[in-house]
């Protein structure tokens, strides 16, 4: 590395990775784009991933293997390389608002809004923007699949990993904050952590304000000290999630979401206690 500045070091990894994908995919690769906090600002050495988007002419079995093998080889190069998170799809699918590789709606929106070209053509204007209802269903589905499991629910009530893992701590606290704020944006624009936190902290009825502030400080480099974190989690994490679940359930009902998804949120609230 030629620099120790965290965001610059992460961008060097992104540029290195873009060249590797270009070599692996050849003419089938239309472009490589920087996403996430490295593209719109607010990169955290403690908590942020290095997000890349690959746009291809089409998706075949050979392309899937090439992406997977290249990603694995890159992630093995160093701890910083392990932060690579790669999204990929064909341009025809992105034009139609589909995902034929690995490219969730929120990340497609980030590509259209904030993506930065690292290699190849700039096709961001051709990407169909997901509708707010699609983003709502996707974030709600993610919450149930990842955050509402019995294992995570038990961790929320009796934290262990949350006391020592900076990435998991910041994500667990800030996921519901970002989801809540994204639901207030009329255009369905992807929210970043900083603006979501600022919005949340001025809501008059929002719980766990001190926990959210602590998560912001940890993202910025504040040490994760169990003695400081444990009482904040005990006092604020479950109320934060109950607040999110109540608001999300209301939005799901208003948009006519599948009943099984609404029921999953009701069950999650019950298990949280």
Automatic annotation (TrEMBL):
What protein am I looking at? DNA polymerase
Q: Which organism is it from?
A: Amycolatopsis rifamycinica
Checking InterPro entries in the record gives: NT_sf
């Amino acid at each position: 590395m030629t620099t120790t500045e965290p965001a610059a070091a992460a961008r060097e990894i992104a540029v290195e990775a873009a060249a590797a994908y270009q070599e692996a995919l050849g003419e089938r690769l239309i472009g490589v784009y920087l996403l996430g906090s490295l593209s719109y600002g607010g990169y955290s050495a403690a908590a942020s991933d290095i997000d890349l988007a690959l746009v291809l002419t089409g998706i075949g079995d050979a392309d899937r293997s090439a992406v997977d093998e290249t990603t694995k080889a890159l992630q093995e190069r160093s701890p910083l390389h392990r932060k690579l998170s790669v999204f990929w799809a064909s341009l025809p699918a992105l034009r139609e608002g589909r995902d034929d590789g690995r490219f969730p709606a929120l990340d497609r929106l980030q590509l259209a809004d904030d993506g930065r070209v690292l290699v190849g053509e700039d096709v961001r204007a051709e990407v169909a923007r997901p509708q707010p209802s699609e983003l709502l269903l996707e974030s709600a589905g993610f919450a149930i699949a990842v955050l509402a499991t019995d294992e995570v629910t038990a961790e929320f009530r009796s934290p262990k990993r949350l006391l020592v893992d900076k990435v998991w701590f910041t994500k667990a606290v800030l996921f519901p904050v970002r989801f809540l704020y994204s639901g207030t944006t009329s255009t369905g624009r992807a929210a970043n952590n900083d603006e979501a936190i600022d919005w949340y902290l001025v809501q008059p009825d929002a719980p766990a304000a001190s926990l959210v502030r602590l998560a912001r400080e940890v993202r910025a480099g504040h040490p994760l000290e169990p003695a400081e974190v444990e009482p904040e989690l005990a006092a604020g994490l479950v109320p934060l999630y109950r607040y999110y679940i109540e608001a999300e359930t209301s939005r799901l009902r208003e948009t006519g979401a599948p009943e099984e998804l609404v029921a999953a949120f009701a069950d999650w609230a019950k298990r949280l206690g």
